[in-house]
Every structure is written in C-alpha cells, then in structure tokens.
Amino acid sequence: MLKEFKEFAMKGNVIDMAVGIIIGIAFGKVVSSLVNDILMPPIGKLIGNVDFSNFFVALSMQHFNSIADAKKAGVAVISYGVFINTIIEFLIVSFAVFLLVQQVRRFYKPAPAPALPATKDCPFCTSKIPVAAKRCPQCTADLPA
C-alpha cells in the first residue's frame, strides 16, 4: 500500500496540482493585500474617508466603535465591509484566472483533426480504390459495405 501511495504521489499530475495550489494560495495573499492595502483606501477616500473593513452590524442593542471592540465584548457581528472586500478580491482573482486561461488557449491550440483517407485497399486484389467505391475498378469485385 505504501508503494502504491508513493507511485500515486509521484505522478506528474499530482505534483503539478500541488504546485498550482501553492501558487494559488500565494496569489490569493497577494490579491488580498492588493485589495485591502492598495485599492480600498483610495476608494474609501473618494467616498468620504470610509474604511470598508469597519462596516459591521452588531447583533446586540449596544453600540461599538469597531469590530474589534464588539468581538472583545463577545458580541456577534455581521462584518459586511469585510465581505465587500472579499467580493472585490474574488472578482480580481476571477479576472486574473480568466486572462491566464485565455493566454494558455492561445498557445495551446488543439491539433486539427486528421484528414479522412481518400482511398482504401480492395480486399480482393489489394489495389488502391476510392473510399466510396462499391465495386473495384481493377478486379470488378463487389466490395463489402
């Protein structure tokens, strides 16, 4: 069983998949930083010094100034600002993957289908005859359908 697992783990597809997952996780962190540290501050500034990560609804009658204060008090919160950031991250990652797939498709065009043969061998005299022939022009034998 250990030998079979080793063979499975060392197959090219499994290694490729593992590398893809690791790169995907790293890419996700980069996109998170891009959204949270680069894109959202100017967008918040344009809207009027708004920090989306602090948009929340506390599920209690008390008022809290930040998510951290509400969580410290043990109050459940709906962090819809963080959700907005996550949606933007998702859109950026989706668009980047779309661009990547488009580029890969440009480089790996499928091979054209092989052309169907125009001739075949007569089973009786072995001469070359058209594929659509019903009778061999050389030996005049009726050809099987």
Structural account:
The chain has helices spanning 2-9, 12-48, 67-72, 80-107; strands at 57-58, 77-78, 119-121, 128-130. It folds into two domains: 11-107, Large-conductance mechanosensitive channel, MscL, domain 1 (Non-ribosomal Peptide Synthetase Peptidyl Carrier Protein, Chain A, Orthogonal Bundle); 117-145. The longest helix is centred in the N-terminal third of the chain and has 37 residues, at 12-48. With 145 residues, the chain is mostly helical. Helix 2 packs across helix 4. It starts with a helix and ends in a 15-residue tail after the last strand. The chain has a two-stranded antiparallel ribbon with strand order 1-2. The chain has a two-stranded antiparallel ribbon with strand order 3-4. The radius of gyration is 32 Å and the shape is elongated.
